[in-house]
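Researcher: We're reviewing a set of sequences before deciding which ones to prioritize for further study. For each one, I'd like a predicted 3D structure that I can look through quickly. This is Guanylate-binding protein 5. If possible, include the structure in token form so it fits the rest of the review sheet.
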Amino acid sequence: MKAPASSMAMSNWVFVFSIVVCFFASGSLAIENFHQAFPIVEPDPGHTKLRLSREGLEAIERITNPIAAVAVIGPYRSGKSFLLNQLLSLSCYEGFGVGHMRDTKTKGIWVWGTPIELDIDGVKTSVFYLDTEGFESVGKSNVYDDRIFALATVMSSVLVYNLPETIREADIARLSFAVELAEEFYGRVKGQDVAFEPAKLLWLIQRDFLQGKSVQQMVNEALLRVPNNDGNKNIDMVNQIRDSLAIMGDNSTAFSLPQPHLERTKLCDMKDGELDPMYVKKKEQLKQLVSSIIRPKIVQGKTLNGKEFVSFLEQILEALNKGEIPSTGSLVEVFNKGILERCLKLYHERMEKLSLPLVEQSVQEYHERSMEEVMKLFEDQHFGRHHAKKSVEQLQEEVDKVFKNVVMANEYQSSKLCEALYTRCEDKMDQLQVLRLPSMAKFNAGFLQCNQSFEQECVGPAKVNYEVRMMKMLGKSRSLFIKEYNHRLFNWLVAFSLVMVVVGRFIIKFILIEIGAWIMFIFLETYTRMFWSAESLYYNPVWHVIVATWETLVYSPVLDLDRWAIPAGVLVALFILYWRCYGRRKHGSGWILPLYNNHKGGSNRPRSD
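Model: Here's the predicted structure for Guanylate-binding protein 5, in token form for your review sheet.
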């Protein structure tokens, strides 16, 4: 019983695997067959926004030639799909689907998978034909129709506005977005790159009789300003669109096309011979007109291949879906995104050249010069005339963020530098407090050098605060040094006088040194204690003479005795040692200094024998 069960399970897996293989096989076969219509943009479930269809994008991405697109727009049930099939010389059964019911057949935007190859100004160009969902159908919002209209306007090279019978006010109003795009992106200084060239607008009026007027006259009359004596805002808005369309006169043309046959529901089953001969003739003229005005799609100054066209389409769709209502401003933001990045990069590069820290005024001036360069770059390359203000504000906001970081970095580097200088001066003052040989001249020289180096090297916003700290620290150090200076010098001179008494009496045996040392010692200890207090000594002229002599000997720009005291003491000791051991034998007792003469036990004492 188990074997049949396992065999059945195996059969089920084989069946499922076969279905999967067949599914992928059929899918790949469908993708390889590009001689059919594909959706490239579809509505979302809410039928308010648009999304891309991967299937249709693959049909476009494979093209390596420059691309041009012909899009047909108009009300639903106006014969757009049938018209496209006629332009492509396709029947209804092999071309775009044609609906005979009262609901719209085409959803979103569809593309015919096989482009028509044309030689345009010596450039081999692949021309795609696009079918769009008709507007004013039931169950859709006006915002959705605007998105379809705007997307077709932006992505096409020729925009065929298919209108039955006549031109209504609503038909003109629907061009407001297309006109705004043309003014915003194409109304630039001649010779500069533009975001994209607007589509050539082709007014296609399907009407049998024009009452003796040409279709161009009919369009021109429809675009005349409407009197508005009551100041109606809606009429003002439509008149503004009329004015803009008049400005776009060189970018639009008009064409009339009679009805192909009275029995519209049977058109798909009719050959050209069964259709109205005038329609067939005009249809061929329309093909020639489209071929004569079409040009490769130009975006930022260059043509697009398939992959670039899809990338461009993704940008536009992102902008149109941004927010609840599609706006020219959102498109401007998308196209200016790259310009903003380049401007920010330029500003970064300029500010990175700063060698921080700097004084705040220098940083501000450099920021302003860099900002001038950035704004010049933005003015030369930005897209949009009326809605570029938001991009400028965004650029200013991003630049302000970068500048704020630069200011913070300048403050940090300034604090770091001034702190290092302050610490160095503080250490210097501490060293001067404990000199081996106290010297006011050396302290003043160190004090001045420290103060000058701080003033010259400490720069930036932190300098003001550190200057206050520096002055307080230097003032305290100076007061402390002066307070201790006289006392230390007095003690040092007392000790020095005693040392010189010993040296003059027992080592060198030079009586003048000993006498001088005794005089100094007596003056400092005995005389001062008898007649002055220790503090009053420091105001005595004799003490000033002693201090001046001391300062002259201890420190000068040429000789710093405090630094060389130990080496000099070693040299003197070596000299005395040499003289004591060898000098008197060789040169006699009076060689250099008048020494004590001791005749007791000497070699010149007369013998008693």
